[in-house]
Structures are given as structure tokens and as C-alpha cells.
Amino acid sequence: MVKKNLLLIREDGKRQYLRMFLLGFFTLLVVLLPIVIFNKGYFIYYGDFNSQQIPFYHLAHDAVRSGQLGWNWQTDLGANFIGSYSFYLLGSPFFWLTIPFPSGAVPYLIPWLLCLKHGMATMTGYAYIRRFVRSPRAAAIGAMLYAFSGFQAYNIFFNHFQDVTAFFPLLLIALEERVNNNRRGVFALAVALMAMLNYFFFAGQVVFVLVYFLFRCTCKDFHITRRKFFSIALESIIGVLLSAVLLLPSCLTILENNRVTERLYGMNMVAYSDRTRIIRIIQSFFMIPDVPARPNLFSTDSAKWASIGGYLPLFGMTGVIGFLGTRKKHWATRLTLFCTFCAFIPIFNSAFYAFNGSYYARWFYMPILIMAMMTAIALDDVQISLKQGIWISGGVLLFCLAACFIPIKDGEDIKWFDFANYPIYFVLILALCVLNLCGVVWLAVCRRRGEPVLRRAMALTIGACVLCTASVVYFGVSLGPIPRTYARIGIEGGEKISLPDPREQFYRIDISEDYDNYPMFWGCSNMRAFQSVVPVSIMEFYDQVGVTRDVASRASIEHYTLRGLFSVRYYFDKVNNSKKDEYSFDCGLPGFEYVGIQNEFYVYENQYYIPMG
Questions:
Q1: Which of 21, 321, 357, 427 could lock 119 by a disulfide, CB 3.0 to 4.6 Å apart?
Q2: Long-range Cβ pairs for the range 276-280 (8 Å, 24+)
Q3: How high is the pLDDT of residue 4?
Q4: Exposure of 235 by Cβ count < 10 A (0-12 exposed, 13-18 middle, 19+ buried)?
Q5: Which domain does 428 fall in, by range?
Q6: What share of the chain is helix, strand, coil (3-state, %, to 5)?
């Protein structure tokens, strides 16, 4: 079967892969282009995307172009550049595409890089799924489902996650090639690529590939031998060694980080303390996901950034359920059921993150690729019925609709129809999911009549990918800052700031709340920083002086003595136009005197500034 499919793949030729890349690229471009045009070239989102992804790209781009690859003074109190930014972008081929461009072009390139990543995810997803599916059109549908899944839509918020999903299928392809076609070296290169892309995700990929290998070993079309097994192990080691140029400094940076050393104990190993978590996981595979930090229907105060998302546009779980019911002994069925079990049990879920105690669902993209393949097979094989999947999906959507009618108690008052935090958004995504389910019903009816459905399914899939991704992205944009304000004072703000050259005499600045990383655009060293991957010595220092330092350094003005210790020379306090007449020109920091307005900030200078020795 595999050999026949490989012959079919070769017949597809390079043009089909180019088509898949362009399809993924332009599908996302259709979503982003109106925002980019409206914002005059920028894609400005909300939360971490604005606070980290854009400024980090800008900072890292300038550091690489200037050859400053050692110590970086513009990150918190100073950080080793490779260790702090390998998690975000240094191992990404997409980041290195920006290096030939001037600094000012980088923010304009980000939406185009996102499109490139989705194009690559579509192409590599197609290359993997095509190995198991007879029809190239069914494989193309599966590739689109992978590249535009709910996981992908959710994680546009974390721009660098898209780098991993773009190349992950290559790891499984390399394994299949080594076992079935005896191609040596490709698995080592794939391991090296994934390890350099992101060490955090690589830890989960190691576990998943081991599980994948074990389930594939039970299949007749997986021609594993003892010799091949040991050669694969050797290639794995070689791949890790090849990646050591980034992997080693990264490990040395994070090993003592308290976020890495947390563990699960007792009942926390077998049951989630958050009562909504399993419900949210199930919902995310049957509905378009909530956006990060904004759980909607099943509200929670924990794991708001955990990347819980898995919805496959148009089909949801209909194809997966149909496949599970028909191919009960298939390796993909067993692997999917095992991954479901892992998702529901905390200790097994944490195995994909070196048994870390913090909850994340950032490994879901791997079983999602398998689910996309299962859906493609379900479309390609008329013996697999979608009926059961349609009924179960409809039941889950009905349950989510019914949940909206759950009354809540606010003090002494009982409120109805107030269960969802964002009712309009929930109604919108529920309507889209119902519309998608109706599309699947129509395809099932057409197939029962003996009519060809793959061409129709392809058109509906592309439309669903656009609508599902747009619903998440546009809601996220609505939560963010006014785009032109962010661009004016952040990205373009350095042109409006006149300060002494820090290269002549080093100094830092401080800035008011909610503007943590804006000085990265301005080329200033800033004591307030939103960067979770910094030397552990910074965290230890803040702990000793009684300041909480988790994902960001945000010492309040009550700790004014730190400004003198850190050689802070200027303090930037954002102008609030609605309270401009009430402003007292007192920033609350002793020794800081008002000197004027720059870039819509009140600027104060430290009269007792001490240069760093």
C-alpha cells in the first residue's frame, strides 16, 4: 500500500507541492490582508503578539545585523542573546529571511512570514498525508485541515509556534523514509531542524515520535528491523549533536529556571484541579477555539494561555469519528485514543513537557496531523461513513448551546443567558460550526447518492479555513490596542525620542505599566521587561529584594531605590489625554524631575543618576 502511494506521490510532481504551498499562503493572506491594508502595512494583534513577538523580531534582527550575538543589554538587566531568543526565533528559517532587509522593514514582514509559515505547513502536511491517501485532492484537504486547525488559529497569538507546526510533518516523513525506503541521514537532519527550531516543542516531539514508532511497529507496511532500529537511534543522537549550537546554550539558560523545575504530585498527577479543563479540551475539538487569555463558555482562571485548540475546519471530528468506528485496529486509531487518554490525565499530558508541573496543551498539533490524515482517508474511502460523526458533533454543539442557558448567581441576583463571557463571539462561532456541520451533511448525502464529492469538499474546506481563522483573528484584533497608536508610539516611536547616546555613557530607562517592551523598538535598555527566558540570576535577584519575577520584570515605583542601582536615567510615563488636565507632573520616584514630553510620554530625568561602573 505504502509503495503504491509513494509512486502516486512521485506522479504528483513538484507542481503539486508548489500548489499546496501557494494555497496555504494565500488562504491566510485573504484573512490578514484587510487588517494589513487598514493598518498601513502592519499586522497588529493583541497581548503577547504585540508585547513580545513584534519587538523581539525587531531586537533580534538588529542584534544579528550588528554582530551582537553575545550579551544583549536591551533585554531586561542584560541577557545572553542566544539562550534568551533561541526559544522565540533564532532557530527559525523564517526569522533569518528578515536579515537582508533593513530594520524598519521587519514589522511589515511579519504578516507575510505568517503566510509563509501556513504555506509551509500546508505543503509539509500534504507530503505526509499523501503517503497514506490514494487521492491527491483528499490529501490536500487533510493538509489544509492541519495548517488551519483550531490549534493554528489559536497560536497566531504566539507567532513562533507556527514555525514548529510548519516543519513538524518532516520529522514523521523522515522516520517513514528511513524505515520503509532505507534513506539514511534524513532523520538526523529532521531531528536537528526540530531541535534548533524550538527546544520546548522538541521535548514533546521526542515523546510523540517514540509513541508513534511503537504503534507503527505493529503494522505490516512499517518494515522495521533490529538494524534499522539502532540506526534510527544513532541518527537521533547525531541530530541532537548537530543542533547543540543552539540547544546547549538554551539548556544552560533554562535548567535552573523555576518554571522548569515545577512537578506534579499526589492527586494532581491523576486529576485536573480545574473542573472545566476536560470540558474545554473536548469543546475545542468540536468548536472553533477561544482566543488566548479569554476563555469564553467555560470560564477559568488557570491555563488561559495553554493553547487548547484542535478544531478541524468544516469537518470538526466527523471524519475522525467515522474513521475510529470503521478502522478500529488501525494504528492511527490506537495512536489517537492513546493521545486522548494522555490529554485527560495530567501526568501523561506533562510527559510531553519533561513532566513539568505547569499545564500546557501545546503538543496537540501532533495528533491533529494524524486526525487530519484520518479525515482525508474518511473522505477518500466511501466505506467510511460520516453519519456517526455528524450525530455526535451535532450533540456536542447542542450541549454547548444548552450551556448558555445555565443560570449564574451574582450576589443575591440570579442571571440568565450570561454564562458566556463574550456572548456575541460565542454565537458567531457556534453559527459557523453549525454551518460547517451542514456542509458535511450535504457532502455525506452527495456521497450516498454516488456523486463525486472531493472537488466540492475542497472548495468548502478552503472557505471554512478562511472563515474559522478570520473569526479568531478578528476577535483577537478587537481586543488589542488601537493599531495606529501602537505603531505610532511603539514601532515608529524611536524617531520621536531624543536622548543621549547610551554608547557614550551607559544608562537604562524605565517606563509606565502596559508598555513593557516598547523601548526595544527605540534601541533603549529598559529595566521593565516582558521576557520569560532570562538568566536565572535575574529571578534570584528580584526574589532577594522582594519583587515577584515570573514572566516579566515589573518592579513598582515603591521600589524606587532599584532605579538608582540599575542606573536608570529616564522614566517615561504615558500621557493620558482624558486626564491630561489633572496631571500633577509627579511620577512618584524621588529625584526624578519632569523635563518634557517625547513620543506621547511625560519624560522624567533622574537627578541622582549614577553611571554603571
A1: 21
A2: 276/300, 277/303, 277/359, 278/344, 280/308
A3: 54
A4: buried
A5: 2-479
A6: 60, 5, 35
> Can you spell out the DSSP letters for 178-189?
HHHS---SHHHH
pLDDT at 202 exceeding the cut of 60: yes
CA distance 421 to 411: 17
pLDDT digits (tens, 9 = 90+) for 250-296: 888 887 676 777 889 999 999 999 989 999 999 999 999 999 999 98
- Residue listed under C-alpha cell 499530558: 349
- Examine the domain organization and report whether 541 and 435 are in the same domain: no
> Residue 130's closest CA among 186, 167, 172, 162?
172
Handedness of CA 580, 586, 589, 592 (dihedral sign): positive
Per the structure, how many domains does the chain have? 2
Distance CA 609, CA 571 (A): 11
Give per-residue pLDDT as tens, 11-54. Answer: 556 789 999 999 999 999 999 999 999 999 999 999 999 999 99
Q: In this structure, what DSSP letter does residue 498 have?
A: -
Is the domain of 403 the same as that of 545? Answer: no
CA pair distance 282, 70, nearest whole angstrom: 45
Give the single-character DSSP code of 103: G
Residue 374: name the closest of 324, 441, 445 by CA. 324
Place of cell 541530530: 239
CB 23 within 8 A of CB 144: yes
To which residue does cell 478552503 refer? 462
Give strand pairing partners of 606. Answer: 592
Beta pairing, strands 568-574 & 508-511? parallel
* Per-position DSSP letters for 105-136, written without gaps between them: GHHHHHHHHHHHHHHHHHHHHHHHHTTT-S-H
Distance CA 294, CA 477 (A): 13
382 plus 460 within the same structural domain: yes
485 is a domain residue: no
Distances (CA, A) of 295 to 152, 158, 162, 373, 576: 17, 16, 21, 29, 30
Q: pTM score, two decimals?
A: 0.94
Q: Which of 20, 61, 15 is nearest to 521 (CA)?
A: 61
The contacts of residue 218 (CB under 8 Å, 6+ apart) are 331, 334
C-alpha cell, 239: 541530530
Percent of the chain with pLDDT over 70: 97
Longest pairwise C-alpha distance within the chain:
83
Q: What is the per-residue DSSP string for 239-302? A: HHHHTHHHHHHHHHHHTT-TTTS----GGGGTS-SSTTHHHHHHHHHHSPPPPTT---SS--SS
Residue 52's Cβ-count burial label (10 Å; 0-12, 13-18, 19+) is buried
Which grid coordinates are listed for 43? Answer: 499586522
Let me know if residue 150 belongs to a domain.
yes
The size of the chain, in residues, is: 613
Residue 114 lies in a domain: yes
Residues 6+ apart with CB under 8 A from 438: none
Specify the pLDDT at position 5. 54
**pLDDT (mean) for 478-504:** 92
Cα–Cα nearest to 171, from 86, 219, 232 = 232
| Residue 500 included in any domain | no
DSSP-derived 3-state class of residue 552: strand
Phi, psi of 430 (to 5 degrees): -65, -40
* Same structural domain, 453 and 576: no
